[in-house]
Amino acid sequence: MTDAIPLDLDDIQAGALHERPSPYVGTYVLLRVDERQDGRDFVRRLIPLLSPARAVLDSTPAAWLTVAFTYRGLKALGVPQESLDSFAPEFQQGMAARAATLGDVGESDPEHWEEPLGGPDVHIALATLSPDQASLDQVVEKARRARDEFPGVEVVWRQDCYQLPTGRTSFGFKDGIGQPAVEGAGTIPSDTGEPPIKAGEFILGYPDETGAPAPMPTPDVLGRNGTYVVFRKLHTRVAA
């Protein structure tokens, strides 16, 4: 057994390692970049609003904001094609293009998806989570004011969400019960009998369960301490 490699918790976004609070409220916002310079300046303005993973580990913040980019978003922000080509093929293609592989056929075909999900207009995704509405509103308002300074960045979609009063999902399961512990993150697993999962299964630049790190985009700064995420909105038929 080898010692775990310490994680750079000051450079990893809190949303990449930590589960939602319970109870929670949240807001998801998707944006399109129409003007490259506005997009780049907007991202710079967002950086001070982001919470590093260490902030959640030391003491749960009132709310935290996470930012993610699509392949088209990175292209719109001016990432060179050579670097774009180094990202995982699944990320480059996107979910709509991989619908048949993912089983998104019939009623779940992308032509039935809520716009603009899966479309070319989604460039930046913002996720804000908080234990209470007042704290959430403060962070969302800061992000809104930052966006308002840059007319070349357009909000194309928003979804507000919350945990049910029962603390359970619509199917009756305890919300968040499947949260694993990541080696080096300092989090407590929902199942204390389960060993932590190697950090490289979630965070780029660290060994995964094979003992080696997963392939990273180039240059190194584009991938290290980052992660790939999937954003999906599902229609669940509870009675059925």
Q: What structural class do you assign from the helix and strand content?
A: alpha+beta
How far do the termini sit from each other? 47 Å
Largest sheet, spatial ordering of strands: 2-3-1-4
Helix proportion? 10-25%
| Mean pLDDT across all amino acids | 92
Question: Number of DSSP strands?
Answer: 4
Give the topology string: H per helix, E per strand: HEHHEHHHHEHE
Structure, briefly:
The chain has 240 residues and is an alpha+beta fold. Helices cover 23% and strands 13% of the residues.
Report on the structure:
- The structure is a single chain.
- The protein is an alpha+beta fold and 240 residues long.
- It has a single domain (14-190), classed as Alpha-Beta Plaits.
- Helix content is 23%, strand content 13%.
- It contains eight helices and four strands.
- It has helices at 14-17, 36-46, 53-58, 71-76, 81-84, 89-93, 99-102, 133-148, and strands spanning 25-33, 64-69, 124-130, 153-162.
- The radius of gyration is 18 Å and the shape is globular.
- The model has no long low-confidence stretch (mean pLDDT 92).
